Structures are given as structure tokens and as C-alpha cells.
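Fold this complex.
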Amino acid sequence: MPQADARTFDAIVVGSGMTGGWAAKELTELGLRTLVLDAGRPLVPAQDYSEHRPVWDMPFRGLGDRRYVDRHQPTQRKSVSFDEWSHRFWTDDAENPYTTPEGKPFDWFRARQVGGKSTIWGRQVYRMSDLDFEANAREGIAVDWPLRYADLAPWYDHVEAFIGVSGQKEGLAHLPDGPFLPPMPFNCVEQHVADRIRTSFPGERLMTIGRAAVLTAPHNGRAACHYCGPCHRGCVTRSYFSALNATLPAAEATGRMTLRPFSVVRHLTVDRSTKRVTGVHVIDARTRESIEYRARVVFLCASALESARVLLNSRTPDAPNGLANSSDQVGRNVMDHIKWGGADGEFDGWADKRVVGARPNGIYVPRFRNVSARHPDFVRGYGFQGGASRQAWPTRVSTPGIGRTLKQTLTDLGPWVMALNGFGEMLPNPQNRCTLHPTAVDAWGVPVLHIDCAWGPNELAIHKDMNVTAAEMLERAGAKNVRPSTRISTPGNTNHEMGTARMGRDPKTSVLNRWNQAWDAPNLFLTDGACMTSSSNQNPSLTYMALTARACHYAVEEMRRGNL
Amino acid sequence: MLNRREWLRRMSALAAVPMLEGVLPTDLDGWGREVHATLDAQGGAPGLDDDSMRVLSIVCDRIIPADDTPGAIAAGVPRFIDHMLTNWYDAPERPRVLAGLQDLGRQARARFGNRFTDCTEAQQDTLLLELDAQGTKSWFGTAKYLTIWGYYTSEVGITQELQQVPAAGRYDGCAPYAPRTRAATQAADAPAASLGRGHAAS
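Structure:
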């Protein structure tokens, strides 16, 4: 395909993170000259990764630069992966504002940098199944997914084979296995709890080791994990999957990728006669210069809320409520996963055992509600993550006393504590939506989002049940002082936002078709979390990646057939 | 003692084993240089005056004394607390702790006829334990928290007291453990209370 000029490409990918990295890899490997845009800076692993910097070398010893964070990252700091080392991998909230209604907070975690949020993600990967893909149709909720597990299974295989997933095959129809690398081991208390759950809830509940995109054996030129612990600060051995560690280098190796950081996409440009997207309008983040790039096909992979924002900001006289939005579904159905339901409990015994090494993974209890029997209080379900560890000095800083006895008390390891933390499905609700703020703009003059999202009764019923069943499992396992959770997470805090440009079977009620292709603009694809028709309760990144790879292959075939 | 150079050497050796691409041991050492540059750049921050630092040092030492392992002073805790009071806490906390340190001096003179720094350890502990009983209501709560945090995040605290290897290079979920043994504690020490509890998560 001839290149007309330096600003014309075969394909443009907006975003370079979890899905943008995959689009970059697949499209370039399939022969397309591809421009990959990211709003933020490039990261250089040798300079920017900090996982091996010991806490004693940190200016605030892991407590973070509170004054800076108060001013610049008051929202981003709420992420579990935000710390003194990793805080530079999140955006500056002052430069990137958004609004929420009074009393309805939403935590929006954002990572404007090459690699996006794939550098700081939780690395848990679980396939969805037809229990998930059929749920909307079965229950008459929202719209039906336009695909089923059989459509996506080969793409899950394709993605897992590349990224490397460690895990244990369990043979569950509703949590399909993949081509796993060896599983990480349980610790002694986790093994005990797993054994007790199997015998206490035979055929209903089980506990397995987390399925993690962290290597337990060398894989595709990347090294096995060395158990240093804090993956979210980077990984010089590239042992966990991220765009920076795997997909972007693969795209770079083709010689067909042009990666342009500091590129804030203001909107997409559209040909009014053909309805096709012609390219993107970029604001250079450093010079404020406006630049237009053109391509035959555009992949919007900017993250669910950012991609919706780009579509809404791409409004024209022909499409006053935004591009690809004749259905009025762009920005609606914001979903996350509800968490912080669960319990923890202490275990007597194993006082002569400890953990050596930091395993960047925990346990997983797959969904067991509404799998065979119907629960009276809610539809869908939840899974548990968590793990066991011995209490250490940070839990005991308020111990009374001074001197040698205090020192000994703080140094000694305390009892084993096992925690089960639920992650529950959120139903799509068109009233949970993001819209463009009428006046507010970000540091580059781009209109910002107003996000109006709250848990519904089904999510709250799920959360309540998490506390009950987690406590029940811990008690059956012999835990004492079992403490159910008393907290409910803020929407968005799980960092699984999705649903803002859903796939469907009907252009009147959905934004994308079964190939992640916009009904209203055939050369536009959205493959990040925006496309999700329902949320399932599994961590979603693996599904985003599989859908991205599938859509890329479809788009290239369509181009070759002359349809795009 | 596992010093930082040794730790970096171990990390480098470890990282080099499994077909590492694109990263050299010099990169790791490079980070170390960057870290030191950052710390050196902070040297100019205004600190507590000498008298306050002397009192603070004794306070830290009585909270986490040296025994078989170094204590808070050898771990650089007073300097860390000074840094936190100057650069982390908001304005009310620094004067509160400074006033507390001065009040400690007045208490020592009134009750023992001596400067705090010249009191016996038993006299110092008497004053500090009274403050400790007030919990977070007292400025001492902040000083104690920072002493504990500073000690157990120091190189001394991690590598000598806790005997942790920062990156083990392996995972063993059922490794042997025995509490540290050390010389018998002094009778004057306060008994430690029961353990708190935290929320483990993956």
C-alpha cells in the first residue's frame, strides 16, 4: 500500500496500552504501516522502571511525596498500585480533570504514557464463557452479545500463547482453561484453606492459584519471574506482560510501526459524504501544535472512557451527539466491578513457617453463584481473590511500649491471616453514563467528561453475599476472629471501567457490530473496554486483548477484500 | 551486612541468569547513582536545630535501642524524622513535635534536675512511657510512629533486624521460620501489648 506522505498511514491506533499494543502488533505483523499514538511520554525501562529500588532509597520511605500527591494526584492515589515508586505512571489530575455529580464519586485511574495502564495493571487473566456471553439474552438485560465463546476461544488461545499465563487447569466450563505455564504455588495456609473448601463444598466451590500474566518459565524471549514482588513499578526482566514488555517491541520489530508519544487526540475526522473516518486530529502535548493524520482504518484503543470521550468530541453537524452514536449508546452503560466485599480470618498453627520471596499473584475462587442453582437475591455472580500471609510490623505500629521488648514484638512475625476479596459483576445500566462537560476542558483545551455512575441493587446484593460466603469458607477452614468486610468500593476503583460503546446485533441499540466495527463508520474499530456488552466478574483485560486481535485480523481481511 | 552495593550485585547476578535481554548490570548500578543523587539533592532542606536533634536522637534510641542489632540512631532515623517533619507533614505537626521535644527538656529539669540528654536511661524511659500512655493525643505518638517506620524501612532494619533479602529470586510459601533470639530484655522495658491485625491481600 503506497504511503502518500509522512502523515498518511494504512492504520492509526489511538492508545498504546493493553489493547493499543495488541492492535499495533497485529496490524503491523499483518503488513500495515501503522501509526500508534499515545497522549503521554515514552517510558524507557532502564530509566523508568523502579521495582528494584529498595524502600530505604526512597525519599519518603514508601509513604510518598504527600504534598505533591495532594496537589497533583488526589484521585490517582486511590489505586492499589499507586505508590511512591509507581506514581509517575499515573496522570496528573490537575491537567486531566473530570467531573462527577455531588455525592456520586467515580474513581477514574488514567495512565497517559506509552504502554498505558498495562504497565500498572493487576495481571490477573481469566477467560469469559457462555455463562457470561449468554447472560444478557437469557435474563433480558440490555442487549445480547453478538458473539459466543466459540467465536473468541481461538483468540484467547492466540493471546495467551503470546503473553504467557501461569495457572492451574481446573476443567470448569464457566472459567475455561488455557495453555498455561506452570502454576505458582500456594503457601501452606492457602493450601490448607483450598483443601478445606474442596471438602466442605464439593462440586460447588474451589480455590485455585490466580491465573496471572506473569511468567513461571522463560517465554517468547522474556525471563521467568524472580519474585521481587512489585510488578506495577516495572519489570526489567519483562516477566509480566505489558505493552512495553511485549507487544510494542513485537510491533517495532516489523519495521512498520511509527510510534508517536505526546499526541493528544482531540477528535477523529470524518468524510461527510462517505461517512468514513479519514483520520485523527492530534494536539502535540508539548508544543500545542495541531496535526492531522490520515489512514484507511482507525483503531480506537484509548481506554473505555477516553475512547467514548474521543467519539463524543468528534461531533459534527451531521452527528451532533458524537461520532458513531446514532444509537445514543456512546458513553452509556459504564460498568466496573464491585469489590471490597469479603472477609479475613486468622489461623493458629504454621508458626514455624514463613513465606520467602514475593509472589506477584494470589488465589482465586471462581464464581459459584448462579452457575447451576439460581440465587434468590441477585443475578450473575462474583469471584474471590486474596491470599494468606503472616502479619508483620506495619500492622503493629501502635503497639504500646518502648525499647527492646517493642523492637522484638515488631520484628517477630504475627499469626497467619487469610483474606478473600470479592470482585462482583456489574449490570449494564444506560443511566450510568459519561457525557461531555458543557464548559470544562483539560490542559490541552479538550472538553472533559462528566461521569455519573452508581452501584445498583444487584451489585449491592452481590456485595452483601460476598461477605457471607467468604466468612463461611474461612470458618469452615478453621479460621478464628473472622471479620467480614464493612466497606464498598467506589465505582471505578477496580480499574475495570468498560461498556461505553457496546457491541450488539442491532445498529439501533449498539455502537459496534460483532467485529468491534462501528455500525456508523465501517473503518472505525473500538477494541478496548468500551466494547463490552456485559462485565462478567472476571478481570477483563484478557477479553479486551482477544477481541482486539480478532478485530485486527477481520479488518485486514476486509481491506484485502476491498471492503474497507 | 548486606550493603547496597552487594544487594545490587546480587540483583544483577540474579537478573543476568535467565536470558535477560536489553538490561545490563550497569543499568542497575545506574539506578543506584540516580537514587544517591536524589538523596544528596535533599541535603539542603532546613532541619531541626542541634538541640532538638540531640533530644530527638535520644527519643528514637529509647524507642528502638541497639541490642544485638543496631538501633534507630545507627539506622539514620532522626534524620528521616527531620525530613518528614519538614517535607511531608503539614505545618501544625512540625511545631507540635518541636514543642514536645522542648517540653521534654522542661519535664526532665523539673523532675530530675537535669537536661533530658543527661538523664539516666531509666529517667528518660519514665518520661517517654508517660507520653506513650497518651497514645496519638501526644506529639510522642507521631515521633514513635516515625521512629518505627524509619527503622523498619531502613537498610539496617530490613537487612539486619528483619534479615530480609529484598529479592529472593524464588518463592517458597512454606519456608522455615523461628523468631529472632537476642540477649534477655531489660526489666525496665515496658511489656509489649497484644498484636494488632491487618488485612492481607494479594
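Chain A has two domains: 8-123+258-334+497-529+547-560, 167-210+338-424+455-484.
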